[in-house]
Each structure stands twice: as C-alpha cells, then as structure tokens.
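Archive entry: two folds, one per protein. Generate the first.
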Amino acid sequence: MTEGLSDHHRRLAQQKREAITSSATTLFLDHGYAGTSLARIAEAAGVSKSTLFKQFPTKAALFEAIVSESWKQGSGHAPTPPPAGDLRAGLTAIGRRYSKLVGQPGMTALFRIVIAELPRLPELGRMQFQLGKLPYFDSVRLYLQAEHEAGTARVPDAESAANQFLGMIANFVLWPRMLLTDWNPAAAETDHAVDEAVETMLARYATGPQK
C-alpha cells in the first residue's frame, strides 16, 4: 500500500511539474520573463504557490528546468550517441532525433523567449546555451570523434563537423519556424532535409563506400 501511494504521489508531482513548466513557457512567451511572476504561473498551472515554490524556489530555477527538459529526449535523459561503425546509420539516427527535437513547438517558444529577453537578461541566453545546446552539441561532436577513431570517417575537426551537420538541419526545421508562423513542413520533407544533410556529411567525411 505504501509503495502504491508513493507511486501515486510521484505521478501527481510529475503532473504538477509539467503543468507548471507548460504554463510558465506560455506566460514567458506572452508577457516576457521579467513580466511574469511565480504567483501568476502557479495560478495558471492550477497549483498552490507553496507547491510551486517547493519544486522551483526561484524563477531562474524554473527557467533552468524548462531549458533542460526541452533539450532532453522522450526518455528524460540526455541523448546518447549511437555506436560508431556505420556513419550513414549513425548520422541518420542523430539527424532524425535532432529534427524532431528542434521541430517541437516548445523548442520554438524557448528560443523566442531567450531572444526577446536577451538584451535585458543575458543570463537566460547562457542557461539556454550551457544547459541545452552545448550538452546536445557535445554528444554529436563525441560521436563524430568516435567515427574518426574507428576509421569510418576522417573528421580532423569534430567541432566544426558537428556545427555543419546540426546547422543544415536547423536551417530547415527550426529557423524558418522562428519567423514564419505557418511553417510546418511535412514529415517527409523533414526526413528529406535530414537525408540530404547526411549525404553532404558522407561526401565530406566518409573514408570509404557507404551502404
């Protein structure tokens, strides 16, 4: 019985946490980070202020959670690079995952919040970079280094290569969405953009014939 109650309470706490972060993202986008109070977020999320403060004692802590959770995969963990040995398969897996990640509405909202508040609150940009983009970027860089060490690719500058690959995908999936409210490419179009980015990487870095 105790274990069952514990599971129930954990699920309830997670539901409240998701309601808080979702409401906060919407309010930050509509009213600005500085113009949104924790009390207002609690009201919008349908939780008490004490419940919110228990999970997020400060607005900065709440924004950190939004950034971290936005950049995680559905499993709730940071991305794990695929094993080295098949450059095409590895890049395709990473590209599909990245396109899905940056194509989600929450990611667009997060970037818009940061860009809007950057002149007044540069620390929000640092959070977005250090807690979100940098760890994700490093996972791709480490994958390319592993392929280089395995001999399946010649990548003398894995940092530059990771920038190239992710940039090609984000340029189709994310950045138009920042400016065009009706930008919503079909899954087949997004997959094609990823496939083309993979082909470009293979042409530049693969050491031998690819499947």
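Generate the second and append.
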Amino acid sequence: MASERTEVQVRPGVEGDLDALTDLYNHYVRETPITFDTAVLTSEERRPWLLSHLEDGPYRLKVAVDTDSQEILGYATSSPHRPKAAYATSVEVSVYLRPEAGGRGIGTLLYKALFEALAGEDVHRAYAGVAQPNEASVRLHERFGFRYVGTYREVGRKFDRYWDVAWYEKEL
C-alpha cells in the first residue's frame, strides 16, 4: 500500500493543528481505554492543552505529518507530571497515533524528536502511564529505556469495567 511508504516529518505542534489533534484524541476517548477521558472534547475545550505545550521548555508537543498529504499521523507530548513545585523537573509523556498509522515506526520518530528536544531542558525524569493491556505501548517505552516501576490496579473505570495502569520511568 502506497501510504505505508510515505515520508513522515516531525515538527512542533501549532495552533492550526488543533482540530486534527482533537479528532485524533477523540478516537481514543470514544473507542479505547488508552485515555481515561470519557466524553469527547471540542477543539475549544482542547485549546488550553495545546497552548500549554510550547516550542521550548519542558512541555512540548511534537506532531508527525505525512509530507504528501500534510495529514497528522500522530503526536507526542511532555506535560507536567504533578502540579506541585517540587515535581517541576519531572514530565509525563505520551504518544497517540491515528489507528492506521500504528506499526510503522511513527511513535519511535515522535519520541526520538521529543527526547531530543528535552535534552537541553531542566528535566530529570519522564513518566508514562500505560493502560493495560497495551503491548505496543509497553514495547515503545522499553525501546526508549523506560523501566517498569509499578501498576495502579483498577485505577480507572471506563466502558463499565476497571482498568490497570502500568507506570514506567526514564532518567533524562
């Protein structure tokens, strides 16, 4: 299939990406336990999230774009781990891909760009919560040197059942 061979560019996310990023995220809200949001979001509701990820600093948004169609294939973020000041040098990271974009190395490209961008920042640790089961996400995080640190059992309820979240950390 031609789309499997397409060139992918990774760049910082911009405000013009908001609708596409919101649509991509809402797929995971509606269809999966990968996010614990349970109601779809409008672009306006999602705008503060996008604007909190700058082109510098510890909180970044990287998007993967098909260079031919300019379609957004996925994104990776680093966000505050917890709100208290002592957590400022820790970030929580995540990757979301369009369902048809999985298995093509796009998550790897996104994390590579994200961690390169964070290399010059005052960030000590990255954390990732992976709703279980999600072997593809576990493999991605382990490939980037994340170490399993524990599981919150039945921490979220979605689709009328409880889900575990495995936590991973990476020294930066």
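Annotation attached to the second fold: The chain has a mean pLDDT of 94. DSSP finds four helices and seven strands in the chain.
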